[in-house]
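Hi P.,

Sorry for the delay on this. The queue was packed all week, but I finally got your sequence through. Input first:
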Amino acid sequence: MVFFSRGVALRRLLSLAATAFLAANALAADAPSTSSVDRPQPRTSDESAFLSENDAAMTKMMTDMEIKPSGDVDRDFVEMMVPHHQGAIDMAQALLRYGRNEQLRRLAQEIIVTQQQEIAVMRLTIGDPLPASVASPTQVQPAPTAEQRDRMPTRGDSMLHHHTYMKGD
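Then the structure:
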């Protein structure tokens, strides 16, 4: 029986996860996309706003996950996973803005906290500094205006974008 140190096992696990992620991303790129035209029309303005924010979060996440490989599998994995986690945060925030089911709202809050923690762990693991800390909001801020969205960066540090947005810009 062969035993590996935690470090070797973690590196192999991250390498395997990154490989699986890249393969899934390549397959997804070849799959036909489903258009929002195929969806039933929203019944309320809240539903419409929620779907719009969700679509924007998904589009940003998918765009930001497309990275140029650096030759460092660990760094590449983190660079792809951070936008993936940020996408989950953005979608959870949309649910908090428009959702009414208290169980789902609590789950969305947990998703925000755990995904932020996982982003921090990943960044620290590869030696990246964390962005400056800011106070957690007591409420989810209203959706950004079109003007605020136009000023938001399209790439870059997702956590910095998230914290800037949460301060109310």
